[in-house]
Amino acid sequence: MIVTHEREKLIQAVNYFARHTRKFGKTKLYKLLYFLDFEHFKQTGRDVTGLTYFAWPMGPVPVSLHEEIDNPKPDLTDAFDFERRAIGDGWRLNIEPKVPFSESHFSKREMMILKNLAEEYRDTDADKMIEATHLENLPWDRVYNKDGRKQQEIPYDLALRNDERDRMMKIIEERKDLLEKLK
Question: According to the model, what pLDDT value does residue 54 have?
Fold first, then answer.
C-alpha cells in the first residue's frame, strides 16, 4: 500500500491527538481533525489531512475516515489499536497509538495548530466538542442550519470571511496556474 504525505499527516495527527488529549474517541477525533484542517485552510488556503468533511447532525464528519475506522487499512492497524469501551450508557472507540509520534511530517504552523487544539480541548468530552462545532456562523452551521444541506460536504472556503474568501480564492487560483505552467 502506498502511503501519501497527506495520509501520513493524517495518521500522525491522530497519533498526536491520541497522546495529548483525554476522553479521546471517534467523535472527538473527527472534531479535532476538522478544526485542524479548517484552521490551517483559513491561514494558508490548504488543509492538512486531505479529508473531506460532511455536515452530519452531530457536527462535521470525515466520512471516508468514519467508514474506514470499522475496517481499517493496514497503515491504520499498524499505527493504532482500536477498542470499544463502555462509558456510561454508551461506548467509546478508544484509539491507542502503537507507534511513536513524529513531527517531521508537519510544518511549524501545522504543529502549532496541533498543539493549540490539543491544549484547548485536552479535557473536553465528545458532547462539548459537538457544541464547539455547532457554533453559529461556523462552516458546519452555515451548511447544516443556514443552507439546510444536511449530510452534504462542508466547503473549506467557509472557514473564511467573505473578504478573506475572495482574496484566498484568488491566491489559490494563481497557485494552480503556476503549478500548471511548471508541469
Answer: 98
